[in-house]
Structure formats: C-alpha cells, structure tokens
C-alpha cells in the first residue's frame, strides 16, 4: 500500500475529525477540503482543489480505506482504516499525526496527540510506535502491509530519534544526517616487513637511488603461497606503511629544502602525510622461501609491508 501525499492528507484529515470533532463527522466534501487545507496542525500546509480531493477519495474507496455515507442530501465520507489495518486507538492516533505533520519524535507525538489519544508517558508512545514497526503476521496485519512506521536517523543535536509512517513512499533515511559524515575507516594488516641495515628514520635516504642499501622483504609465512613464481630479476612495487612518519603534516618543503616553496604533501613524495604509504620500485635479487632480497631500498628496518605488486613489463604505468 503506497498512498500519495494528497491521499494521505485526505485520510489523515478524516481520522482527525472523527476523533476530535465527532459531532461533525462524517465529513461532507466541502468540510473535508477545509480540513485538508487548514493551516494549523498540518505540515506541509496544502491548498488542495475539489478535483484533487475527489480523485483521492476515489482511490481510497478502491482500497476500502474510505467509504461514502448516504444519510442525507449531501454525500459524506468516513474512513475505515482501523478495520482494514486492524489498528488500536493509540496506533490510529499515532499514524494520523504522522500523516498530517510528517516525521516526529515520541515527545512531539505525545504533546500533539491530546485531542486524539492520551498517552500516559513517552514509554507508551514508544510502545505504540514499536508495535506499528513490528507488524508482520496475519493476525495483527490482515491487509499484509508489513511495518507501518520506521525510525529515522537521529538529527544532529537531537535527543530523540524521529519516526515516519510507511503508508506512502519510503522516507529518506539519510535526512537529518550531517552533510559530511565521518568517513569510513579501514583496517589493513601487513603482509610482511622490511629487514634493513637502516635502523632509524634519520639514516634513510630520500630515495633508494640516493645511497640506500640492499634489503630483505620478509613475507608472513601464511602468505608465502602468494609468492608463487617470484624469481630473481623481477621488478616489483612495495607498498609500505611508514610507521615513523608524522600524520598531521599537510605541507612541506620538497626535499626538505627551505628554499623550495611550501607544497601540499599530496603533490610530493614526503613520508609525512595523513596516510603515510610508501611506494618503492625495486628488483628482486634473490628468492629464499618467504624472503626476497631486493635492490637498494630506503625503507628502514621493521617497516610494515602492506602489499607487493609486479611492475608491468610492457607499459610505462606501474
């Protein structure tokens, strides 16, 4: 069952007037139009035409949610939602408010429901919303609509989550969330480590070609099958985690030369950066089980290796 906004306004207005002003219920077409377009207790405020309300009534009649009443010269209309959906009075009141005023917190529902139903406390409102959200069997859900309410993400600064009905199109479950939510984090486990004569960061040259020594790449034993067909002479790329780098640096003098203008770290090879991932192109000199001896490598002893990739032999890309 998916009702459009006009159908929801018509149905909600009929429910409200039945409970709040029973002496004037059922409603004539003109009274119903006025109820739909009233400026109080409505969000959003609408200005529906007679044709729009008539069309909504026809659809609701087809769904058995509304029925005409012929007890005089002027046709009148009443809702049948409690019968069709097997609703309790508290559930009917809560759905009515959600249809007429959009998503609300339990506290807002309680304070606005005084003319429709008296909830003893917030726990009573919550229990009602929970029942509506949990409908899933034939006895409580004869129309097989499934859940009738849903909890929305809590808005920034709000103590309570809001609830929406599910009689119309599905609500936007991202509404109210921060425009720039906290980014996801990822866990990366090292596949091995570097063994090198370089023990401290200060000992390491900026590049392997600037006087770095040969080193050993030691792969974790359980991952050794990943080295199948590795051979001396292969060129590989090592991705390392530069564990001694500073992660709060965003600008540097390239080459640590103060005469070079400050440059954003994303345009440099500086090890200091938010995610200090090292990129090293080396040649395999020897394969010994889980160990690869490689050509000069500037990574210091103990540097975690997070991945190993081959250099593409027939491409300038790597």
Commentary on this structure:
By secondary structure, this protein is of the alpha+beta class. It has 2 domains: 5-165, Arc Repressor Mutant, subunit A, CATH 1.10.10.10; 192-310, YaeB-like (Elongation Factor Tu (Ef-tu), domain 3, Beta Barrel), CATH 2.40.30. 24% of the residues lie in helices and 19% in strands. The protein contains 7 helices and 13 strands. A 6-stranded antiparallel β-barrel has the order 6-7-12-11-8-13. The protein has a 3-stranded antiparallel sheet with strand order 1-3-2. Strands 4-5 form a two-stranded antiparallel ribbon. The mean pLDDT is 91.
Key traits:
318 residues, alpha+beta, Arc Repressor Mutant, subunit A, Elongation Factor Tu (Ef-tu), domain 3, 2 domains, six-stranded antiparallel β-barrel, three-stranded antiparallel sheet, 7 helices
């Amino acid at each position: 069952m998916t009702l459009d906004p006009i159908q929801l306004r018509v149905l909600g207005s009929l429910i409200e007037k039945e409970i709040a002003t029973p002496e004037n219920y059922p409603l004539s077409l003109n009274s119903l139009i006025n109820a739909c377009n009233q400026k109080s207790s409505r969000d959003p405020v609408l200005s529906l035409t007679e044709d729009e309300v008539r069309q909504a009534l026809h659809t609701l009649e087809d769904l058995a949610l509304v029925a005409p009443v012929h007890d005089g010269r002027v046709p009148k209309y009443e809702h049948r939602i409690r019968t069709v959906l097997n609703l309790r009075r508290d559930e009917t009141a809560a759905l009515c408010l959600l249809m007429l005023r959009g998503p609300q917190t339990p506290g807002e529902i309680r304070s606005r429901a005084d003319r429709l139903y008296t909830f003893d406390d917030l726990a009573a409102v919550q229990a009602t919303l929970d029942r509506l959200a949990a409908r899933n069997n034939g006895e409580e859900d004869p129309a097989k609509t499934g859940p009738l309410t849903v909890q929305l993400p809590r808005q920034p600064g709000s103590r309570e989550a809001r609830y929406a009905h599910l009689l119309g199109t599905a609500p936007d479950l991202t509404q109210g969330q921060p425009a720039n939510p906290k980014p996801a984090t990822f866990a990366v486990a090292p596949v091995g480590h570097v063994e090198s004569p370089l023990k401290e960061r200060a000992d390491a040259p900026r590049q392997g070609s600037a006087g770095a020594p040969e080193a050993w790449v030691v792969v974790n034993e359980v991952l050794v099958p990943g080295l199948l067909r590795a051979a001396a002479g292969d060129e590989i790329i090592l991705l390392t985690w530069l564990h001694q780098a500073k992660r709060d640096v965003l600008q540097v003098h390239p080459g640590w030369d103060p005469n070079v203008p400050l440059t954003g770290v994303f345009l440099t090879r500086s090890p200091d950066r938010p995610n200090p991932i090292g990129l090293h192109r080396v040649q395999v000199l020897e394969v010994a089980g889980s160990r690869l001896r490689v050509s000069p490598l500037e990574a210091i002893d103990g540097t975690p290796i997070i991945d190993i990739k081959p250099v593409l032999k027939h491409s300038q890309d790597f």
